[in-house]
Amino acid sequence: MPTSSPTRTVALEIKRQASPEAPAVWESFELEWRPGMNVISAMMEIAANPVTANGRDTTPITYDSNCLEEICGSCAMRINGKARMACSALVDNLEQPIKLEPLSKFPLVRDLQVDRSVLFENLKAVKAWVPIDGTYDLGSGPRVFPQQQEASYPLSNCISCCCCMEVCPQFNEDTGFVGAATIAQVKLFNDHPSGKVLKEERLRALAGDGGFQSGGFAQNCVRIARKQIPLTNAISDISRDVLIQAARDLLRG
Ligand code: SF4
Ligand code: FES
Which residue among 54, 102, 187, 215 is the one 20 to 30 A from 32 at the CA level? Predict the structure, then answer.
């Protein structure tokens, strides 16, 4: 008689915390392996049947996700100790048990969900946009030549996942450093023919508390950044521009 092969399984250990004040606990799960499984699909399976590996009923895991194709940045978490997107983390490529933890540098909401609004506040502080809103038609903007488009396009690939901030030793509550993602967006909008009208304001915002004064350059962000976002160039160009702007402001009195 043919013997059936044992069911292939996936083991996960997930850090749970019911609220920011509640104690953290680890729960283990064992799921049936499926082809193409990723961390988010594993958590969907847990949501459909929230039972731990030792058979105890529990609650579905709380986490953020949206696009499921590494575009929105919302599912960032620590997977086996590394900050990355859960939707593109294929189970077959991960050592088991797969350990899932929330990002550590952001306020915890619950389980794997954190509040990443600091990045969006930083982007507001540096006016990371092209100012085209108004009560009248501003007409078409200046041409952006293909060479400039090609240079700027990689910077526009930032998906606000916050992984570069998670791995940066300078990004912490003491320094208030804005982090590489914000600096990269300053570079993107300062280089834009219409966006550069706010260039001086952006550079002044970075010269204050939490800007470059607070940041060394450990380059961890460069190692983690997705889609070859040129963070090194952005940080060195903008740090130079911040210094030049500060010197100009000093001379102007
Ligand atoms: S620069 Fe890269 S790592 Fe940082 S927020 Fe943007 S996409 Fe994420
Ligand atoms: S769900 Fe959008 S990046 Fe993962």
Answer: 102
> Tens-digit pLDDT profile for the chain (253 aa)?
556 667 899 999 999 999 999 999 999 999 999 999 999 999 999 999 999 999 999 999 999 999 999 999 999 999 999 999 999 999 999 999 999 999 999 999 999 999 999 999 999 999 999 988 778 888 888 999 999 999 999 999 999 999 999 999 989 888 878 999 999 999 999 999 999 999 999 999 999 776 665 556 678 888 877 668 899 899 999 999 999 999 999 998 7
89 lines ligand 2 (CB under 6 A): no
The pTM of the full predicted model, rounded to 2 decimals, is 0.91
Give kind and range of the element (H or E) at residue 78: strand 76-79
Q: Whose CA is nearest to atom 4 of ligand 1?
A: 164
174, amino acid identity: D
Q: For ligand 2, pick from 38, 43, 75 the residue to mutate: most ligand atoms within 8 Å of CB.
A: 75
Which amino acid makes up residue 102? P
- Residue type for 28, please? S
Among the listed residues 112, 97, 110, the one whose alpha carbon sits nearest the alpha carbon of residue 29: 97
Q: List, in order, residues 6 or more apart from 155 with CB less than 8 Å away.
A: 184, 185, 187, 188, 229, 230, 234
Backbone angles phi, psi at 43, to 5 degrees: -70, -30
Look at phi and psi of residue 114 and say left if phi exceeds 0, alpha if psi is from -120 to 50, else beta: beta
Query: Residues enclosing ligand 1, CB less than 6 A?
Result: 73, 158-164, 180-181, 184, 224-226, 229
Q: Which ligand is nearest to the CA of 227?
A: 1
Closest ligand to Cα 226 = 1
